[in-house]
Amino acid sequence: MTATTTTADDTSTPLSAESLAGFRAALRGQVLIPGDAGYDTVRMVWNKMIDRRPQVIARCTGPADVIAAVTFGREHGLLIAIHG
């Protein structure tokens, strides 16, 4: 499966299945994209007036996962938001 993401310069770019598989393998936590079980539940924020649909969600379990997620986002030019 390929996910299309909006980059920091407001352009769209595809993420290959290989990129996502590598990212999933690098994280101890869960990586979700639209269509995955649990995606809609995880993407919700407390303010229900905000309805964001990120193309990749990394559910980090520790500092190493955070580093891997930020590195992946930077390497692919993705916008990054931290929720904790």
Structural commentary:
This protein has one domain (3-75): Uridine Diphospho-n-acetylenolpyruvylglucosamine Reductase, domain 2 (2-Layer Sandwich). 33% of the residues lie in helices and 17% in strands. The chain has 84 residues and is an alpha+beta fold. A two-stranded antiparallel ribbon has the order 1-2. Strands 3-4 form a two-stranded antiparallel ribbon. It is globular, with a radius of gyration of 12 Å. The model has no long low-confidence stretch (mean pLDDT 83). The protein has three helices and four strands; from the N terminus they run E-E-H-E-H-E-H.
How widely separated are the two ends?
27 Å
Name of the CATH homologous superfamily: Uridine Diphospho-n-acetylenolpyruvylglucosamine Reductase, domain 2
Strand order of the largest sheet: 1-2
Low-confidence stretches: none
Mean pLDDT: 83
CATH topology assignment: Uridine Diphospho-n-acetylenolpyruvylglucosamine Reductase, domain 2
Q: Biggest β-sheet: count, sense, barrel?
A: 2 strands, antiparallel
Give the domain tally: 1
Q: Helical stretch count?
A: 3
In short:
This protein is an alpha+beta fold and 84 residues long.
SSE diagram, text form:
Elements: E1 3-6, E2 12-15, H1 17-26, E3 30-32, H2 39-43, E4 57-59, H3 63-75
